[in-house]
Amino acid sequence: MSDEEIYQKFIEYMNNPVWKFTESAHKMPMITSFISPEEAEFLTGFPMGPKTLEEIAALKDMNIDDLTRKVKVLCEKGLIYESIREGSVRYKLWTTAETFIRVPFWAGTDGEPLKTMAHHANKYFMDGWWDQRKPFVHPELRSIPIHETVVAPTEFLPFEDIIQVVDKYEYYSVSHCPCKMRYNMDPDYTQSSFPTEVCLHFNALGRYCVEYGLGREITKEETLGILKKAADAGLVHGIANHEENPETICNCDPEYCNYFKSYHQMGFDKSIDPSNYQVAVSVDACKACGLCVKRCPMDAIQLKFSPQATNKFKKAPVVNLDICIGCGVCVHKCKSNAIHLERKEVITKPPKTERELMEINAMASLAAQGGEEQ
Question: What's the pTM?
Fold first, then answer.
């Protein structure tokens, strides 16, 4: 079988009705720069759901020692996921999005083949590939407020209190932000000014990252310190968008984050799902410094004339609540305490499980495709 045929079989295997490799001049360079023909051939048919090595050995008709060595190498490369839960070790193939724009960049390295792959992945992202997610009801992340920015934090529900969320984990790790790393190593983009080692993973996912050099183990106290550093810098806390076992908290760069980029530059109607909080303004306390306008990741705040304003400019923040995501980034650095987060009247819960999140988005995508075909 030729290399071209091997890659074509790999592409066909990875495609599904919701998420496909779309046609672009950057598709094949992205794939072939990172995955060798031998790797593509091995990964074709590899389970997409968790399986034991014994099950995979039978599926692949391979000696288990040879299989183990090969799988471990591909785990280090960010192509296969190893999950250890209740003493059971299982492996699955990462999805195409996780393979080409997320997992391999966690390590924070910027050499080849990542550098070439990143360049083509960034172009491919903007060239129709990511557009397939426009019908999705929920992004994979939702905003979780900076704790100190909420007026009455005692009213937090468990899934929206970042302190409660962090406290319940047993294992903590930090990796580099894949979005910032991808663009930082691409010569067509300027370097992000934000810190990169801010991508937090927990429990089974955290153990995988540390075991395979894609992150480092940290303590709970270090985790809280990273969240504080991220909030100070103006990054948005984004947690995996399901109630049960969210194993990731991203600290998102408003310019290079996949979700903010798709909102600001690609016509998506949302970035990440909003929290159950929104910005409220104390007009008489505002100094009209404009820092909240600068820090808002959604461009949801403007300084406008207000007859109630007491500052010399007679201006105060006006918030577009339709697009505010309730992250608290604007509030966190307001020295005059003129803005704060308050709970919305209507509370929205995220999907219960990751599977439910995927099913909701899959149904929406298939429904949209059906509408296009009519």
Answer: 0.94
Q: Is 344 helix (H, G, I), strand (E, B) or coil?
A: coil
**In one letter, which amino acid is 129?**
W
| Whole-angstrom distance, CA of residue 343 vs CA of residue 337 | 17
180-195 per-position pLDDT tens digit: 999 999 999 999 999 9
Give the span between the Cα atoms of 233 and 217, in whole angstroms: 22
**Would you state the pLDDT for residue 374?**
42
Whole-number Å distance between alpha carbons of 321 and 87:
47
CATH annotation of 3-130: 1.10.10.10
CATH level 3 topology of 277-343:
Alpha-Beta Plaits (3.30.70)
Residue 372: the pLDDT is 56
Sequence spans of domains, the chain:
3-130, 135-273, 277-343
Kind of pairing between the strands at 141-143 and 236-240 = antiparallel
Nearest to 22 by CA among 110, 97, 103: 97
What is the chain's Cα-based Rg?
A: 22
